[in-house]
Amino acid sequence: MKIHKRLHEEGTRAILTTLAILVALAVIVILIWPSQTLWHCLFYAFELAVLILTIRFFRVPIWRKTTIEADSVLAPADGRIAANEVVMEDEYFHDQRCQISIFMSIYNVHINFFPFDGEVTYYKYHPGKFLVAFKPKSSKDNEHNTIILKDKKGREILVRQIAGFVARRIVCDLQPGDEAVAGEELGMIRFGSRVDVFLPLDAEIDVQINQKTIGKETVLARLK
């Protein structure tokens, strides 16, 4: 699915709902306190900031270009590296994997991207809690999607979309057999959330804890 719009289609309802609420609040304030004061101006400025942040949240980075490097795994999301460790992956691989976690704040682009070319071979949605996304337990306990991508060389990686404390909706309509094209949209998660990537133990990791990532541009690792 190629993206050509500056605002994601998922944002239409959220932006209109936010605008309606802000207008209603402004009308109530004017009816109760008709005399315009400095506090009115501050309130209107706050409302404008909320609307701008909501619109900005659903922005689509159409200006970015994906440069594919051989054997590279690109960052599937904007954010910062919250974890880079070896863990036991017990849903699909059932062995030890390198886990790289990207935490997305409300200020980041929240669209997720395919990290390399291949095919979707596994997809499963898991209902769950809404813990703060940067906590380790959120990877298993929170609502999340698990996606397995397999390239032409038979190498597999796992991408997990994890809803956070504020997020209440993970957007992803993938199915096994779908084509994965590096840099194209995989899905999105609304508001503060996280994406985990599970890689083979012999992958060469190119990022460090707290490093900022740019979706479909930053190289997370290189596969053997």
Structural account:
By secondary structure, the protein is of the alpha+beta class. The protein has two domains: 11-57; 72-222, Distorted Sandwich (Glucose Permease (Domain IIA)). The protein has three helices and 14 strands. The chain has an eight-stranded antiparallel sheet with strand order 9-5-6-7-11-3-2-13. The chain has a three-stranded antiparallel sheet with strand order 1-14-12, with no helix packed on it. Helix 1 runs antiparallel to helix 2 (38-57). The protein is elongated, with a radius of gyration of 20 Å.
Descriptive key words:
224 residues; Glucose Permease (Domain IIA); 33% strand; eight-stranded antiparallel sheet
Q: What is the top-level CATH class of the largest domain?
A: Mainly Beta
Low-confidence stretches: none
Overall 3D geometry? Answer: elongated
- The CATH topology of the largest domain corresponds to Glucose Permease (Domain IIA)
Biggest sheet character: 8 strands, antiparallel
**Averaging pLDDT over every residue, what do you get?**
85
